[in-house]
Specification:
The chain is an alpha+beta fold. The protein contains seven helices and 15 strands.
Length: 325
Amino acid sequence: MHSADLKRQDGRRAASDYLQQLLLAPGLYRQNWEQYVCRERRGTINQLAVAEVIARHLWSTPRGPADAKITPHQLKDTVSRALTGRLLSRSALSMFIAAFGFSEHEAARLWRLWSGAATISVMSGTRAVPARTEQNIDRVLGPRKHRTLSLHDHVDVGADGRIYRARTMQVIEATAQGVDRIPFICDSKVQTLELGQGGKELTGDVRQISDGVFVTEILLARSLDVGDTLTLEFWISYQYPGDPADAAERQFRVAGMRQVENLDMRVEFHPDRLPSQLWWAQWDGVDGEVIEREAVTLDRQLSAHRYLRSLEKTVAGFYWRWNGG
């Protein structure tokens, strides 16, 4: 297969992955198909329910005479191929976008991914945290019992210029039997952690791993066996002193010690405090310098976003400057 064909194939798989994230994330898109579900399976998209949404859209805005009588069952194979990445055609993607009413920036990203034009889709490096910190984490947490299939971070920056909240959607897969909890690693800037879908409670036991790095455990809503998946939702609030000159207060990053697949990051700014410059970047570890960066412009919702197929042993995210800073 030629490199252009491989790029096109990878792009369409990436578009399929992002399409799944949009449909699984809490909100209107998920509500649209969930209303047609008879038996819900958490963290799983009901393909027939999705086909129902698309069929109803085609009934009201048919592309041709056949659409006025099309049934959800006739669309189920198209939906299945699209969501599993086997075949996401141009016409299928157009139907999804129109039927679910994806926002302008979401639709644009789907088309960019579909065409294979994603600028940085896979990022890897040699380290995310210092070797001693990684050793301490491995020692405290023990063998890894799950992997991350997708991670969506939506970050809000307030009118005072401080990062004050992040909503995370994480799909995990158990790699061991009887996984009933996963670790949550954070720094001292995290003020609160509130669980939503997929989470039962926090253990309440917070341990310090190294300078400024802490770990607790999230108890899952149900125990997972090997291959089981679960969608986990939580909200994080932060407490920053509010020093605009401090670079740590003008960035949001993810450190991937192990492979993280399908990372979607979005930072939204308050209209009263917009950055004068904004970059998407990769760092040489959490304490290292920026090794690659790309200027980014805000969309109409005053947000910046990036989708990655994979992140491993590196640090990536957004950083910005304020006027005069």
